[in-house]
Write a structure and sequence with these properties.
Blueprint lengths: L9 H29 L17 H4 L5 E2 L1 H9 L3 E8 L10 H15 L1 H8 L4 E7 L4 E7 L5 H8 L4 E6 L2 E3 L18 E3 L6 E3 L1 H6 L1 H8 L7 E6 L25 E3 L18 H10 L15 E6 L5 E3 H13 L4 E4 L3 E2 L6 H9 L3 E5 L9 E2 L7 E6 L12 E4 L13 E4 L2 E4 L3 E5 L3 E5 L2 H18 L5 H10 L23 H20 L5 H40 L1
Parallel strand pairs: 1-5, 9-11, 9-13, 10-11, 13-15, 15-17, 17-20
Antiparallel strand pairs: 2-4, 2-5, 3-4, 6-12, 7-8, 14-16, 18-19, 21-22
Helix pairs in contact: 1-15, 9-12, 12-14, 13-14
């Protein structure tokens, strides 16, 4: 007689099925936790924030694409031309510190540029002028009489080259006529009667409510470094105190640098202004009261100045070299009253990488009026600035428009589908500040509004040195105001979020940081303690539940099978 084969009862099968379902459900629930705790996921903001997935800007123009302007130049030029080869950008981990991000960018550029440099060395008629790390790029000088487009295409195809473009120019926004009149009249100063001690300030500083920050927080920008990238600065001006590591050195080490069109630093350069723009802007950021009125928003901030524009304009390479220098000198704020009309994707990575390296980037939106705007101010991660009169009305010349993500050659997946520029506005009409030679002069423009905002950020950071770029922009945008009659509830292309209020923004930032401090005391300080630790506990608990549940159900099923076999 054949041996009897034990068949599990229906009850045993049900128990085993329950065990399997429990196991699958628990695993599904724990999978996101495991990913988060292992650091495999990175959150990319859609509506704001500064964390960005790098490498997107040039990656969308892959396979060594050569811009049309370069093709035209190579085919028509006599003599030499300059071209910028853009290589694959580094990917910055979400949990990287600012110092780690900067170091990663430098190491990545050095490693990935090696093969290109070897090819260039073997190609007659082509030479390397500059190498950059803030954005992974190499500037080449090409002898158009010896090199044809086919040879350049071979260089562009070297892995990991992704795009080739000209060393295009950026400039200071053209000085506008203010609402049909010029702005050369003397500018009165306002008495600040609300502060602890009566002082004279310019109308722009009064509009910002900056003196209230000085008094409430006992700071005027102490400990914060602002790098102005412009036409240069008159360091001998009585209202300008340019930072230096060595007061006996006329080159002002640590506080001054000049760059040529190739982005190379000019050795032995001493501070000077190639125009008037840079001294005026610098005075609004950090000028003192030598004129009899306080002209600077953050007079105790450490002022750095990089000459990246000669008279009125400078090259892409100059601007990038200036930004790299600012980061190397630990600048907290990079102020750029310069730009080029429209959306220039070549400027996306430099701005994003500077922000990831810990700097707040502030840029003018331009002086061509409504439905116009400039880059780098157009880059989503920059704080773009428009101009208003002392009474809060927007200057007719101030730029502003809605930017569609698709307007850029290289769309950024982390950006919203459309957004408004400028982000904020500040006083930018007949702004009274320093000019070379020891004098003072009123000047108009979004260039003059921009340093008001840069100085405000310096005040905020002086009050809260550990604040992140995202916390700063959130506080700045959330505390703006608009005059009666303007739509205060939404962003618009004239005001953006609104007029900056330095005191309200600093108060909001301090409140935010205090809340974080309270959370820290309660044991939930940073990203790791808020996410990784709970998920780790959840994982451990889940594993325990699975083990116990499966063991219990399996035991019951086994007994059921055993009983069935006995019968």
């Amino acid at each position: 007689m054949a041996a009897h084969r034990a068949v599990p009862s229906a009850g045993a099968v049900r128990l085993l099925t329950v065990a399997l379902v429990c196991l699958l459900l628990t695993t599904a629930l724990l999978t996101p936790a495991l990913a988060a705790s292992s650091g495999l996921e990175r959150t990319t903001p859609v509506d704001g924030g500064t964390g960005t997935v790098q490498g997107q800007a040039t990656a969308d123009l892959a396979n060594g694409a050569i811009h049309t302007d370069v093709e035209d130049s190579v085919e028509s030029a006599n003599g030499t031309i300059e071209v910028v080869l853009r290589l694959e950008e580094a990917t910055i981990p979400a949990d990287a510190t600012e110092a780690e991000a900067e170091r990663l960018l430098e190491d990545h550029a050095e490693k990935t540029q090696e093969s290109l440099l070897e090819h260039v060395a073997d190609t007659p008629g082509v030479s390397v002028e500059s190498e950059f790390w803030l954005t992974n790029a190499v500037l080449l000088e090409v002898d158009a009489d010896r090199i044809d487009l086919e040879t350049l295409e071979i260089l562009a195809a070297v892995d990991p080259v992704e795009a080739v473009h000209e060393n295009f120019e950026l400039s200071v926004p053209e000085e506008p006529t203010v609402d049909g009149t010029n702005s050369t009249a003397e500018v009165p100063v306002d008495g600040d009667e609300t502060s602890a001690t009566t002082r004279l300030t310019t109308p722009g500083i009064a509009q910002l409510n900056a003196p209230a920050v000085w008094d409430s927080y006992d700071t005027r920008g102490d400990g914060v470094r602002v790098a102005v990238l412009d036409t240069g600065v008159d360091a001998d001006h009585p209202s300008i105190d340019l930072y230096t590591e060595d007061p006996s050195d006329p080159t002002y080490p640590g506080g001054w640098a000049e760059f040529d069109a190739a982005g190379e630093r000019v050795e032995g350069s001493t501070p000077h202004d190639s125009g008037t723009h840079g001294t005026h802007v610098s005075g609004t950021v950090a000028g003192n009261a030598a004129s009899g009125a306080q002209i600077g928003v953050a007079p105790d901030a450490e002022l750095l100045h990089g000459l990246v524009l000669h008279e009125t304009s400078g090259s892409f390479a100059q601007i990038i070299a200036g930004m790299e220098w600012a980061l190397e000198e630990d600048a907290d704020v990079i102020s750029m009253s310069l730009g080029s009309t429209g959306t220039h994707s070549a400027l996306i990575d430099p701005v994003q990488n500077a922000v990831d390296s810990g700097a707040v980037v502030v840029a003018a939106i331009g002086n061509d009026g409504e439905q116009t705007s400039n880059s780098p101010g157009n880059v989503y991660e920059a704080i773009s600035v428009g101009a208003v009169h002392a009474d809060g009305t927007v200057a007719s010349f101030s730029g502003g428009e809605t930017i569609n993500r698709s307007d850029w050659t290289h769309e950024q997946a982390s950006w919203p589908s459309s957004y408004v520029v400028p982000d904020v506005v500040a006083h930018g009409v007949a702004v009274f500040s320093a000019v070379p030679g020891g004098g003072y002069q009123p000047m108009p423009g979004t260039s003059m509004a921009t340093p008001h905002v840069s100085g405000t950020v310096a005040l905020m950071l002086s009050a809260e040195p550990d604040a992140t770029t995202e916390e700063i922009s959130t506080a700045l945008y959330g505390t703006t105001w608009k005059p009666d009659g303007a739509n205060a509830d939404t962003m618009d292309t004239r005001y953006g979020h609104g007029i900056v209020d330095a005191k309200a923004a600093t108060d909001a930032l301090v409140d935010t940081r205090e809340a974080i401090g309270t959370d820290s005391a309660d044991g939930a300080t940073d990203t790791e303690s808020k996410t990784t630790a709970p998920y780790s506990h959840l994982f451990a608990a889940g594993v325990s539940v699975i083990v116990v549940l499966v063991a219990a159900v399996t035991l019951l099923a086994a007994r059921s099978v055993s009983r069935e076999a006995e019968h």
